[in-house]
Amino acid sequence: MMRMVDIIAKKRDGGKLSREEIEFFIKGYTEGSIPDYQASALLMAICLKGMDMEEATHLTMAMVASGDQIDLSAIEGIKVDKHSTGGVGDKTTLVLGPIVAACGVKVAKMSGRGLGHTGGTIDKLESIPGFNTQLTREEFIRAVKETGIAVAGQTGNLVPADKKLYALRDVTGTVRSLALISSSIMSKKLAAGSDVIVLDVKTGSGAFMKTVEEARELAEAMVSIGTRAGKKVAAVITDMDRPLGYAVGNALEVREAIDVLKGKGPEDVREVCLTLAAKMLELAGKGSFGHCRELAAQAIASGAALRKLEQMIRAQGGLADVVRDPALLPKAAHVKAYRAKRGGYITGIQSERLGIAAMMLGAGRATKESTIDPAAGIVLLKKPGDSVKEGDALMELHANDETLFESALAELDIAVAIGDNVPEPAPLVIDFVP
Fold first, then answer.
1. Do 410 and 306 share a domain, yes or no?
2. Neighbour count for residue 65 (Cβ, 10 Å)
3. Is 66 a domain residue?
4. How far is 205 from 351, CA to CA, in rounded Å?
5. Are 198 and 164 in contact (CB under 8 A)?
6. What's the CA dihedral at 403, 404, 406, 410 to 10 degrees?
7. For the Pyrimidine nucleoside phosphorylase C-terminal domain, which residue ranges apply (predicted)?
8. Deepest of 74, 77, 154, 218, by most Cβ within 10 A of its Cβ?
9. Is the confidence at residue 251, as pLDDT, over 90?
10. What are the φ/ψ torsions at residue 164 (nearest 5 degrees)?
11. Which of 323, 346, 363 is the last residue of a domain?
12. 240-276 burial by CB neighbour count: b if 16+ within 10 A, else e?
């Protein structure tokens, strides 16, 4: 008979867990027969001793099997999904989803809400008046079949093992484990049922993985798990040492995404989105990466991607007129400038600090119970490399409560660095895996 204490001791001593042992743990912990203290002990042993890719894959698949799995077979053709490890100003789904759908590939995306210094994709979409992210499974599949794209919140009993384990890891110092991070992300992606998964792995000051080496290790682990599970998976490592685009905040980011789909907007957002869209189209069989990038660029140039966003918003009950008139999006009652303390060149903006400042204004969640203000956030007027004079406006802070400005401005004093020399520009797209 299998005993949890033996499994803990085996991993503590550096042993390799079998598929049966991992399944015993996940099943027992999800059902409640294995207590928190034993689960915590095993998680710590995994953090300290690690897992090989076979163990990590068994862990992922056991978590997938802990709950519902979405069957997308009713939707014809290849279905694609994308996951970002999160960043400041990361509105890529709002741009590349419509691009890929406009190129004839179905996008079936389950997204989460943000916790911490940024809103998630669901929070951004819910800043569009009337937009419904809480679709039933039938509504989700129908929307993808009819418009080629749907983005919805996770519904039903999807990967309950991950929900329980993540809550425990959060309070036991066991979040930072390659096997546990990669299995947590991939279990949700695999349960969501798509054929193709492209991972946007961020690295830098505003990312969970601070170094390129850490980001590459995570990307390789997730690609390996997904490939072993029979999916087409690739990862793109992108820079998050600086915020993506100029807008940080939910309605502000929707407005910027619309600009990009109109052929305007920030070049960095366009570049990352075209790269990710091209990789999704390539894995979906639309041709070489170079050809797929041309297809993606043409979807913007022709207006097809913008029309696809409009269709998606309408299909999910939202006010589609925001695409033609972004002024219909929520606007903050108060706007305040953040000004340069000295002249010179902006040598850096710490993305994480910028995100925290936006959260203080109401754009993110300090706790799960926090309410997001869709209009709150920050718009950058200058970015790293730009020259500034003392007193120049560097950012606009948007809030519905003027008392929130003071603490956000203090955070920005830490976030912004101004020096005498122009900084070397870092590449936006750092690497591909594989």
1. no
2. 16
3. no
4. 6
5. no
6. 170
7. 345-419
8. 218
9. yes
10. -65, -45
11. 323
12. bbbbbbbbbbbbbbbbbbbbbbeeebbebbbebbbbb
Question: What residues does 347 pair with on adjacent strands?
Answer: none
pLDDT at 88: 84
Dump pLDDT digits (tens) for 321-365.
999 999 999 999 999 999 999 999 999 999 889 999 999 999 988
**Which has the closest alpha carbon to 364: 106, 24, 115, 73?**
115
- Dihedral over Cα of 260, 263, 264, 266: its sign: positive
Residue 254 shares a structural domain with residue 399? no
Whether residue 300 sits in one domain with residue 158: yes
Reply yes or no on whether the pLDDT at 114 is more than 70: no
Q: How far apart, in whole angstroms, are the C-alpha atoms of residue 431 and residue 433?
A: 7
As a whole number, mean pLDDT of residues 134-153 equals 95
- At residue 375, φ and ψ (nearest 5 deg) are -85, -15
- Count helices and strands in the chain by DSSP H and E runs: 16, 13
Q: Which amino acid is at 142?
A: R
Name the one residue in this structure whose structure tokens are 């997001």.
372
- DSSP helix/strand/coil, 55: helix
Distance separating alpha carbons of residues 349 and 227, to the nearest angstrom: 36
Find where tokens 């099997």 sit.
Answer: 65
Q: Which residue, among 56, 108, 106, has the nearest Cα to 226 in the 3D structure?
A: 56
342 shares a domain with 262 = no
The whole-number pLDDT of residue 86 equals 79
pLDDT above 90: residue 221: yes
Tokens of 357: 């400042």
User: Starting at the edge strand that comes first in sequence, how are the strands of the sheet with 232-239 ordered?
Assistant: 149-153, 106-111, 79-84, 196-203, 232-239, 429-433
Examine the pLDDT at 110 and tell me if it is beyond 90.
no
The one-letter code for the residue type at 312 is M
Q: Which of 239, 246, 250 is nearest to 87 (CA)?
A: 239
Judge contact between 199 and 83, C-beta under 8 A.
yes
**What amino acid positions are annotated as catalytic residues?**
83, 162, 169, 184, 188
Task: Say how far residue 410 (Cα) sits from the centre of its chain.
Answer: 27
User: Residue 226 in contact with residue 264, Cβ under 8 Å?
Assistant: no
Q: Kindly report the backbone phi and psi dihedral angles of residue 54, in degrees, each rounded to the nearest multiple of 5, phi listed first.
A: -65, -45
Task: Tell whether 89 is covered by a domain.
Answer: yes
Q: Is 148 left (phi over 0), alpha (psi -120 to 50) or beta?
A: left
Instruction: Verify that 200 and 99 share a domain, yes or no.
Output: yes
**Mean predicted lDDT score pLDDT of the chain:** 95
Residue range 382-406: mean pLDDT, rounded: 97
Residue identified by tokens 């390789």 is: 220
Lowest mean pLDDT among 78-87, 276-285, 359-368, 415-424: 359-368
Domain that holds residue 145: 79-323
